[in-house]
Amino acid sequence: MTELGELGLSSYEEKVYRSLLVTGTATAAELSTASDVPRGRIYDVLNGLEARGLVQTQSTDPARYDAVEPEVAVERLLAERTAELRQELERYRDVAETVRSNLLPTTPADSNLWLGRLGSDEMSTALQQHVRTATESVHATVGPPYESASWDVLQREFDAFFHGAASDLSVSLVFSERVLDVLPESLPELLDSKQASVEVRVCPEIPVSFDVIDQSVTTIDIPHPQSPADRLGVVGVTDVDVIAEFERQFQTLWADATPLIE
What is the pTM of this model? Predict the structure, then answer.
């Protein structure tokens, strides 16, 4: 493809435009001969070039055509191409949003339970979207089943969590001591590298893992009954009284926990 072709001209349009630059003002018949564009196509090509502002028509009999200056032509073609690419970008964004939505696990109509294993792609995507809804704070406890999982598995959810967290979000995490055995020694550096404001504390034991987002929704991890290193799914709760109770439980654990980094 030629450079003008990359800017959107067809081969016939390029031939006619280049011929006009050489011949100067010319009739359609003269341009057909000069450019080797068939007589049956020459008027369509000229009309297309005129519509794009690359050719001007003189009101003579027969009509004669002039090419606009190359610099003007290139700028007009570039503007056209830029607009097309912007439209294409918006289309791809719409497609990406549709794909992202389709990757999320479907909530059953009669419950707020999402089935998904620890570290699975669908649950990592769901976690990212879940945290993305937070505008002020996330309070979370991290105990079972994370205590028995490997860091390779946990890292997928760790990355998804912080990928969804906004830069002005306040994140408070309480880890059980057993979770610390799974996490890498570089955890403080990993947390420092995140945009959100993160504070971590540690307590000896956490009975259940859960989070409270903006004190308006809580999700609770359901350990897998046959695998201590896995999760059956998570259940989401929007009942005000239940959320308030989980927030109270978090604050109790938080008050008794020790800061991970002094």
Answer: 0.58
